[in-house]
Amino acid sequence: MPSRVVHTAAQAIDALGGANYVAALLGFGPNAVRNWYRRGFPPEAYALLAPRLREAGCDFSPELFRQYAVASKPKPPPEPKSRRKRKNGGR
Fold this sequence. Notes:
This protein is mostly helical. The protein has helices spanning about 10-15, 20-25, 30-40, 45-55, and strands at about 5, 60.
């Protein structure tokens, strides 16, 4: 039986049984797995998903796990909120 070639995170998730199944299988929340449809897999997902994809008869490139969009620089911390002045003379 020829193996299925998987090119995207969406194809891989679907090949494994869908977002809810993958979330339960890996112990992630379903929304985290659904985000992978758009963003791709985070690199650390390789160790968890690669063996399962092989068991499901799927071929894939390691590049599948390098599609995750990583921000080029971190967001700056939020500005501290100024303290509100109390009304009525500080009481």
